[in-house]
């Protein structure tokens, strides 16, 4: 089977931006746990190997009184859990530190890099406003890594959850070679934009389009005027995906707070997957399976993509397959699908 490189090297014009030299380990589900909660922390060892990423959350959802316990709890979890974090571990270890303007952000970074920097794969930074926030974290990480004698750089992931962050999304993506990816933070972003919602991610029944009436009879008008709920996050996700693709880093959806509504959760995740995201957050164990399923390409789509790759031969010209025209552009889409399937099965 040819790989994307075979095609993109000679056909460089219009080829997708290659991913930067960042480890392309699967991260379909980033499962959040609160390290200050002993019950949650105790479950972590059993989850290693069954989820792509475990993230010790120190920021929102951890009470102010528990911030130090959460930080210390994460150090203990990382030290005491075999196979969690570090090169070639089956489950990556990430953390979400407190915001850079909070009383805890600096100490979070200092303690974690010093104590468990060899296990920590990615630091998620909330409420990033612009490149300056990433520059600050980048410099600090460099100092702390040097002091701790670490030989593997810790990567940085930014949450897009302020209007200013959204406007600066491109400079944020390109602010450091440590940038691993971006997540959408729909709850904080909604508040910052003064959207009229009260939820953590997902849709809203009031955000809809209504079909024009086809008839002038009042009865028919009422029956015919079907409504369709729209995706509140379409623009934002697409904007984030473009910025990430331009800089060769990974885009993610974010939290879906209605844990009971697994159908709407799956729909939201799938929309993000189809638009280009590689993964999402999981706030409850039942969202892990949904994320792993949605962010893995369907076997029938992969089989079709492989047929197109074979049918396209040297990659030039056009062929007809099942009555549909395939060419260089559909080949490139199929290679994205095949590469993702290969990465996930590696
Ligand atoms: C996540 O942090 C959010 O604000 O949605
Ligand atoms: Mg937030």
Automatic annotation (TrEMBL):
Keyword Ribosomal protein: no
One of the protein's GO biological processes: oxaloacetate metabolic process
Gene3D superfamilies xrefs: Phosphoenolpyruvate-binding domains (3.20.20.60)
Binding site for substrate: 96, 161
Residues annotated to bind Mg(2+): 161, 188
Cofactors: Mg(2+)
Organism: Nocardioides scoriae
Keyword annotations from UniProtKB, A to Z: Lyase, Magnesium, Metal-binding
Keyword Metal-binding appears in the UniProt entry: yes
Molecular function via GO: lyase activity; magnesium ion binding
Pfam families in the record: HpcH_HpaI
Domain of life: Bacteria
Protein's name according to its UniProt entry: Beta-methylmalyl-CoA/L-malyl-CoA lyase
Domain HpcH/HpaI aldolase/citrate lyase: 29-199
């Amino acid at each position: 089977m040819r790989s994307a490189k075979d095609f993109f090297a000679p056909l460089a014009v219009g080829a997708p931006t290659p991913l930067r030299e960042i480890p392309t380990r699967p991260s379909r589900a980033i499962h959040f746990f609160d390290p200050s909660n002993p019950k949650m922390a105790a479950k972590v060892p059993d989850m290693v190997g069954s989820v792509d990423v475990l993230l010790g959350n120190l920021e929102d959802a951890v009470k102010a009184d528990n911030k130090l316990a959460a930080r210390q709890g994460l150090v203990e979890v990382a030290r005491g859990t075999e196979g969690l974090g570090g090169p070639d571990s089956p489950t990556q270890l990430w953390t979400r530190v407190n915001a850079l303007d909070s009383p805890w952000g600096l100490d979070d970074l200092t303690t974690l890099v010093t104590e468990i920097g060899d296990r920590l794969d990615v630091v998620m930074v909330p409420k990033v406003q612009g490149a300056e926030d990433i520059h600050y974290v980048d410099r600090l990480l460099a100092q702390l890594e040097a002091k701790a004698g670490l030989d593997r750089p810790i990567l940085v992931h930014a949450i897009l959850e302020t209007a200013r962050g959204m406007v600066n999304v491109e400079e944020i993506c390109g602010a450091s070679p440590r940038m691993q990816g971006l997540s959408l933070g729909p709850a904080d972003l909604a508040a910052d934009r003064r959207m009229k919602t009260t939820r953590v991610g997902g849709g809203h029944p009031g955000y809809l389009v209504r079909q024009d009436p086809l008839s002038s009879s009042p009865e028919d008008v009422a029956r015919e005027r079907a409504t369709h709920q729209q995706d509140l996050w379409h623009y934002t996700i697409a904007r984030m995906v473009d910025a990430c693709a331009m800089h060769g880093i990974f885009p993610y959806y974010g939290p879906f707070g209605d844990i009971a509504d697994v159908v709407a959760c799956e729909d939201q995740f799938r929309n993000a997957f189809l638009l280009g995201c590689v993964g999402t957050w999981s706030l409850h164990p039942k969202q892990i399976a949904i994320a792993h399923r949605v962010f893995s390409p369907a076997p029938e789509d992969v089989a079709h993509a492989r047929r197109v790759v074979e049918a396209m031969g040297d990659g030039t010209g056009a062929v007809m397959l099942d009555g549909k025209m395939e060419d260089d552009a559909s080949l490139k889409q199929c290679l994205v699908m095949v590469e993702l399937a290969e990465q996930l099965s590696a």
